[in-house]
Amino acid sequence: MLRKFFPLDKNYVLEEAQLSLQNSLLQYLVDYVKVEYLLRFNALGLMDETAEKIQQHSGSDYMQLQEFYMNLAGVYRFKHYSDNQLEFIFDGRDPMEKYMEEWPATFRQWVKEFCRHEQFIRAILELTVFYPEDYTPQMAGLRLSTFITKFFELKIDSQKGIVKVKVA
C-alpha cells in the first residue's frame, strides 16, 4: 500500500489497530448476532433445526465478513478521525493503546445498534452459520453495504472514498 502521509499519521496507526483486532471483533459480532437471533426469534428456547445449527456453529473463519469489517473501520476513521493530522495525546498513552480501546468500544456499540434490524441479523447469519459451500455471498454482501449506507448516511465509493449522502 502506498503511504502518502507521515508514517505516524493517526489514521495509519488507527488502521493498524483495527486490523490487529479484526478477528476478535468479528468473532464478537457473530456471537452477538447468534445470541440476539435466539433471544428475539426463539425466546422460548425451542430446539428446532435452525436453533440447533446456530448453537452448534463454532467457525472462526469469517473471510466473508472482512469487506464489511473494513468498510466499518473506514466509516469509523471517517466519522471520528477524518482529518489526517498528527495527533498528540497528552495523557502519556501511546496512540496505539488509545485506538485499541476506542475502536472496539465503538464497534461493540454499533453491533448492538445494528442488531435492532432484522435484515442485518439475517445477513450475518447467512454469511456465517448458514453459509453453504456453493454459495456466492454477493447478495448478503450487497445487503450489508446497503445497510451501512442507510445506517450512517454514507456511501462508500471506490473512486471518491466515503461520501455523505442523504438517504430517504
Description:
With 168 residues, the protein is mainly α. It has a domain at 10-81 and 91-134. The protein has seven helices and two strands, in the order αααααααββ. It has helices at residues 10-20, 22-41, 49-56, 66-80, 95-114, 118-127, 138-152, and strands spanning 154-157, 161-164. Strands 1-2 form a two-stranded antiparallel sheet. Helix 1 (10-20) crosses helix 5 (95-114). The radius of gyration is 18 Å and the shape is globular.
Please describe the structure with a list of short key phrases separated by commas or semicolons.
globular; single chain; mainly alpha; two-stranded antiparallel sheet; 168 residues
Question: What layout of secondary structure does this protein have?
Answer:
Blueprint: H1 10-20, H2 22-41, H3 49-56, H4 66-80, H5 95-114, H6 118-127, H7 138-152, E1 154-157, E2 161-164
Helix pairs in contact: 1-4, 1-5, 2-5, 2-6, 4-7, 6-7
